[in-house]
Design brief:
Chain B: Belongs to the DNA polymerase type-Y family. Chain B: InterPro entries: DNA/RNA_pol_sf (IPR043502), DNA_pol_Y-fam_little_finger (IPR017961), Rev_trsase/Diguanyl_cyclase (IPR043128), SulA_CellDiv_inhibitor (IPR050356), UmuC (IPR001126). Chain B: Its EC number is 2.7.7.7. Chain B: This is DNA-directed DNA polymerase. The complex is a heterodimer of chains A (185) and B (488). By secondary structure, chain A is α/β, with parallel strands linked by helices. Chain A has a domain at 15-136: P-loop containing nucleotide triphosphate hydrolases (Rossmann fold, 3-Layer(aba) Sandwich). Chain A contains five helices and ten strands, in the order αβαββαβαβαβββββ. Chain A has a nine-stranded mixed β-sheet with strand order 4-2-5-6-1-7-8-9-10, with helices on both faces. In chain A, α4 (74-87) packs parallel to α5 (103-116). Chain B is an alpha+beta fold and 488 residues long. Chain B has three domains: 1-233, Reverse transcriptase/Diguanylate cyclase domain (Alpha-Beta Plaits, 2-Layer Sandwich), CATH 3.30.70.270; 237-334, DNA polymerase, Y-family, little finger domain (Dna Ligase, domain 1, 2-Layer Sandwich); 405-486. Helices cover 30% and strands 30% of the residues of chain B. Chain B has helices spanning 13-21, 45-49, 58-64, 75-88, 118-131, 144-152, 163-167, 179-187, 193-198, 201-208, 210-220, 249-269, 302-314, 348-362; strands at residues 5-10, 28-34, 37-43, 69-72, 96-99, 103-107, 136-141, 156-157, 237-246, 272-283, 288-299, 322-334, 367-372, 382-386, 405-412, 422-425, 428-441, 457-464, 469-474, 481-486. In chain B, β19 (469-474) and β20 (481-486) form a beta hairpin. In chain B, α10 packs across α11 and α12 (249-269) packs antiparallel against α13. Chain B is extended. Classes of the chains: A alpha/beta (185), B alpha+beta (488). The interface between A and B is large, with 52 and 52 residues. β3 of chain A pairs antiparallel with β15 of chain B.
């Protein structure tokens, strides 16, 4: 895949649970969903008023491969995520969380992802990561004089590698992420 | 053994049905719209005694009888009611057919003695129907035609050997012939069936066609005629009764497996698939435990259904043991046999099963898909459809630059038509670095939408120095600035 040649850590390692935070976490999730082969399940709590707009999403990912689910509270969201990850019927599960995961929950989700060989991506509030996650990303939008989707992706946790930061932009024609700048630690 | 047929004619079935629910005194009629006129469809006795008749214009009837009560007829409900009566009539014999819009035909051959003879059977039938406040005429004969004739024209029983003698004095109209034929026969002076029998057959055929003599022969029994019974509606229920109570999950699952197999065979025979399956376990203490399974797709694959039952069966409280299990497909849908193709599909079954399992946990309506819709209003340019009842869209037209996330409009401080240079949103302050717009959207006047009551909207894509790219709009008709979305 083109993206992997540029950013070594992408696409996200399969059979693992990952986390993303920051103001542009949804954009990060949309790009990850676009790179997946099969269907993607997007689970969130029902009280959330933010709605993914399919016309905006279509630049990154075909909206028809997304299935959305909503639960009444975080427990239901986590239960549904675990079930979906364990079944392996979808290639990725994206869950929007509002409370921190404890170790037991994080480990359960990690095991479920391993069983089902699918990728879990949890969109968490800033600073509420779980220790069980394979990688954690922070995604921030960056101002660009041109009209673009410039973002800063910081890999802030990585269980099997080093941490790094990238300045990336979505290339709509090539349908891939193009790296503007890369700096390691 | 000679056949014995009962013809049941509910003379005023439609009006009786309505009057059963709302009793009314005085003249009453049902009306039906027929080529721009309202006509009387069915009347009660009081209305008929005043000289009104079926097919009469409603305005004429009103002129004759100013206090006539009428309501529009509901022919579908009448037909459904007749089906109910047919099912009820199976208490007399298993062979019951529907005869016209307001009649039944019963083949009581060999079942009359169960009710103490033919006359007793008819009395019983009449008593029960009258108690249900329906008016009925009954005819019993060895042929269907003769029974019909007797029911419509002066009730009675034609004893086994005297069929011809009994129906001979009846008018020719009793032969189930067209009104036009009956009138022509009347004009020729042939008023009764006896007159018709007396005529030479060749001339009758030449004058009236074969149909008249066929009807006559059917009434007299020289031509056979059968009663076609109603088809039994398919039942998608299977039951398992156990000699000893069971309690282990594995035992219950084995029972479910056996039941599902036979249920799916039934579904397959009818080319149907189950949408909602219900498992009822009766315990030895007569209590019931129920497991409902709502499926994301109509299906009849036993292995898949059994696997989906597992979480539900785990939760059953077996108490002192379960001794009866009942599996019912509560809701079924047509599911034709599908061609298996070599084009490899990316296992659509797996995701359907996942939707079923998640649906039984969080509700099937909470699992959705987005489908394109034809509207320029951002909130309405897509539909949120239940994933279980829709297929993914084949292609997505992307015509406009739209944000990735959309939320209900949040007001910000701002004035004037140009986007604010600085603003605060969600307790963060932003400096506008670049504004693209405006894109003016007008509300769809054909929809009542409270959110768009403020009129036109001028949408701007704002790139802030802080990095976030927001979708703002200004309402010129009732000035104000709002944030409605965020771009990637």
């Amino acid at each position: 895949m083109l993206m992997s040649s540029v950013i070594k850590v992408l696409p996200l390692r399969s059979s693992r649970a990952h986390e993303a935070c920051g103001p542009a976490a949804v954009s990060f999730a949309a790009i990850i969903a676009g790179q997946m082969q099969g269907s993607v399940l997007w689970i969130s709590e029902r009280w959330r008023q933010e709605q993914v707009h399919p016309e905006g999403l279509a630049i990154f990912c075909d909206p028809s491969k997304l299935v959305f689910a909503s639960g009444t509270d975080q427990t239901e969201v986590l239960a549904a995520s675990e079930e979906a990850l364990r079944s392996g019927a979808v290639s990725a599960v994206i869950s929007t969380l509002s409370k921190p995961l404890d170790l037991r929950q994080g480990r359960r989700l990690q095991l479920a992802a391993e069983t089902g060989q699918s990728t879990g991506l949890f969109l968490i509030p800033e600073g509420m990561g779980s220790n069980a996650a394979e990688t954690r990303w922070r995604s921030n939008p960056v101002y660009d004089a041109q009209d673009s989707t410039l973002m800063r992706w910081d890999l802030i946790k990585n269980k099997s590698g080093t941490l790094k930061s990238w300045l990336v932009r979505w290339d709509a024609e090539a349908h891939r992420v193009s790296v503007v700048h890369e700096d390691g630690k | 053994m000679q056949k014995r047929i009962v013809s049941v004619w509910f003379m005023r079935m439609a009006s009786d049905r309505v009057l059963r629910a709302m009793p009314a005194h005085g003249p009453f009629a049902l009306s039906v719209q027929d080529q721009n006129t309202e006509r009387l469809y069915c009347l009660n006795i009081a209305a008929e005694e005043l000289g009104l008749s079926r097919g009469m214009g409603l305005s004429d009837a009103r002129a004759l009888c100013p206090d006539l009560k009428t309501i529009p007829a509901n022919i579908q409900s009448d037909q459904a009611f007749l089906q109910v009566l047919a099912r009820w009539a199976k208490r007399y014999c298993p062979w019951v057919g529907v005869d016209g819009p307001d009649g039944l035909v019963l083949d009581i051959t060999g079942s009359a003695h169960l009710f103490g003879g033919e006359a007793a059977l008819l009395d019983d039938l009449r008593l029960r129907v009258t108690r249900a406040r329906l008016q009925v005429c009954l005819g019993l004969a060895s042929t269907r035609g003769a029974a019909w004739a007797l029911a419509r024209h002066g009730e009675g029983i034609a004893p086994a050997g005297q069929l011809q003698e009994t129906i001979a004095p009846l008018p020719v109209a009793a032969l189930r012939i067209q009104d036009q034929t009956a009138q022509s026969l009347q004009r020729l002076g042939i008023r009764t069936i006896a007159d018709l029998i007396a005529l030479p057959r060749a001339t009758v055929t030449r004058r009236f066609g074969r149909d008249l003599l066929l009807r006559l022969d059917q009434a007299l029994g020289t031509q056979p005629e059968t009663v076609s019974p109603l088809a039994e509606p398919p039942q998608y229920t299977v039951r398992l009764t156990l000699p000893d109570p069971i309690g282990l999950t594995s035992d219950v699952m084995a029972g479910v497996e056996r039941l599902t197999g036979s249920l799916c065979n039934k579904l397959k025979a009818q080319e149907h698939g189950a949408r909602v399956v219900q498992l009822t376990c009766r315990r030895v203490d007569q209590a019931h435990q129920q497991v409902d399974l709502r499926l994301a797709r109509a299906m009849r694959d036993p292995a898949r259904i059994v696997a989906l039952f597992e979480p539900g069966v785990d939760k059953i409280d077996a108490g002192f043991g379960i001794d009866q299990m009942r599996l019912e497909a509560v809701q079924v849908e047509p599911l034709p046999v599908a061609q298996i193709t070599h084009i490899a599909q990316t296992n659509p079954d797996a995701i359907q099963d996942l939707i079923t399992r998640l649906g039984n946990r969080i509700g099937l309506e909470n699992i959705t898909r987005l489908l394109p819709a034809d509207s320029h209003i951002p909130e309405r340019s897509f539909i949120v459809a239940a994933a279980a009842y829709s297929d993914p869209a084949s292609s997505w037209p992307v015509l406009r630059d739209r944000p990735l996330q959309l939320f209900p409009p949040e007001a910000i401080a701002g004035s004037g038509r140009a986007p604010p240079q600085q603003f605060r949103w969600r307790r963060m302050s932003f400096v506008t670095a670049r504004a693209t717009g405006p894109e003016r959207l007008a509300p769809e006047w054909w929809f009542q939408d409270a959110a768009w009551r403020s009129g036109l909207r001028d949408y701007w894509k704002i790139q802030t120095l802080e990095g976030r790219r927001l979708w703002l709009f200004h309402t010129p008709q009732s000035p104000g600035w709002f944030v409605q979305g965020e771009f990637a």
